[in-house]
Design brief:
By secondary structure, this protein is an alpha/beta fold. It has helices at 24-33, 72-77, 79-97, 134-147, 176-186, 205-220, 244-255, 279-285, 293-311; strands spanning 14-17, 38-41, 62-65, 104-110, 154-160, 162-164, 190-193, 199-200, 202-204, 233-236, 242-243, 261-264. Helix 1 links the parallel strand 1 (14-17) and strand 2 (38-41). The N and C termini lie far apart (64 Å). The model has no long low-confidence stretch (mean pLDDT 90).
Amino acid sequence: MAPLLTEPAPRAPAAVVGATGFIGSRLVPGLRAAMVPTHAFGRHTPLTPGGRLADGLREARTVFYLATRITPAVAEEHPELVEADRSAFVGLLKQLGRTGTRPTVVLTSSGGTAYDPAFPPPYSEESPVRATSRYGRAKLLLEQELLARADVIRPVVLRLANVYGPGQRSCNGLGVVPHWLEAIADGRPVVVLGDPGTSRDYVYVDDTVQALIRVHLVASEPGGPGRDALPSMLNVGSGEPVSLKDLLSVITEVVGFEPLVEHRERRSFDRHAAWLDVTRARSCLGWRPRTPLETGVSEAWGAMRTDLARTRPQNFSRR
């Protein structure tokens, strides 16, 4: 007699706040491909005009919060936006805390600005923290707001390295890879800020998305370790330092020619070296970064060329 086939148990629902952003726009389809019922919200839509949770948030087992809009440069120039970010996050946390379901709330924070630069990298989750910029302080404040509500919310902070990949556009003070690729595509000089030996940790966007998905699956899968087995703090990065000089070499190899280079003084909020120890994420999530830097940059370059050829054909040169 043939064994009876049983349907797999339905997966717990999730919600993504900030679903139209760089990471969110890839997380939503990634969750749905993993058969996770997923509700997508823009930055301004998780609460109704009356201040209540929008449909889809109340039943979500995991809420991913990717909706902060500040960058290092914006935080320095517009402290009022830092406070607006904090206020929006706190308002959502208060409503989620009132559901009585203790949902897991995943906050993406900054692994590059949270840790104390007086101590040498790589930084683990146990490394001392000390923000040296308004952006870093803003990120740590959001972490504190989340962690302070552990009695009614299951907090998980993911301190991300420098996330890059297709679909990322350069913005004010954030994202050296899209800044450089866009400059090359436009025929402008690549601007190197500060010491070319400055080292950072670059993690591909799809690897980052897989870490986020694993948080939900580990926390909510029947028979799994359960969300209380997850630590409240996890680093997500490549775990490898890459200097600006080496990054430029990779980009030069990918685009196939030597770009113009302009050297400038570093910005006041730039750090000299920061990369992450991702051992805990490997152990707790069964996750590891899989995309080599050369592959990720090549994917980002191809996507940017296609996009700029479509949106700015008058000044985009197909080299």
